[in-house]
Design brief:
Layout lengths: L1 E3 L2 E4 L4 E2 L35 E3 L13 E3 L2 H17 L13 H10 L3 H20 L3 H10 L8
Antiparallel strand pairs: 1-2, 2-3, 4-5
Helix pairs in contact: 1-3
Length: 156
């Protein structure tokens, strides 16, 4: 038997032995039940992402203050794989993330190669337009909104 905040939990039954003090406000159909399967909260492979996404990638100059967009995991994965493809098509040598695509490397690359931020933005917009068309999202609108609010570091 374990004491968990305001009530006792019996691990042999997988239930509490006392009622939930907040009753139905806990969105649990039984007052004695445990939370949903907490094993789903763990991402042992690191493949699940935060549903909030920077529409202007940080590597491209998008700052931390930008408005985030909610994307389901499959859409987020599609967007990044398409973005990497578009970056290659536009002749940009760095990936959008990882050790070979870090913000620091991109910052140095964009600063030393005038005009490349525009090419990278074109790749981002192309990827965002395609994902928006397929999934019905509004990544492009979120990018423009963040640019309008000044949430993009401009490189020469």
């Amino acid at each position: 038997m374990y004491y968990n905040r305001f009530r006792y939990y019996d691990s042999s039954t997988g239930n509490y032995i006392s009622q939930d003090p907040i009753r139905f406000n806990g969105n649990n159909p039984t007052f004695y039940g445990y939370v949903v399967d907490s094993n789903d909260w763990i991402d042992i492979f690191g493949l699940k992402c935060n549903p909030k996404h920077h529409s202007i990638p940080k590597f491209l100059g998008g700052n931390k203050k930008q408005d985030l967009i909610s994307l389901p995991n499959d859409v987020h994965v599609d967007y990044h794989s398409l973005l990497n493809k578009k970056l290659k098509e536009f002749g940009l040598p760095l990936p959008d993330r990882g050790p070979k695509g870090s913000t620091k490397l991109w910052d140095a690359y964009l600063s030393s190669n005038p005009g490349t931020q525009r090419k990278a933005l074109d790749a981002v917009f192309d990827a965002a337009r395609e994902v928006d068309m397929v999934h019905g999202t509004d990544i492009v609108g979120n990018i423009w909104e963040n640019i309008y609010k000044g949430n993009l570091k401009i490189h020469p």
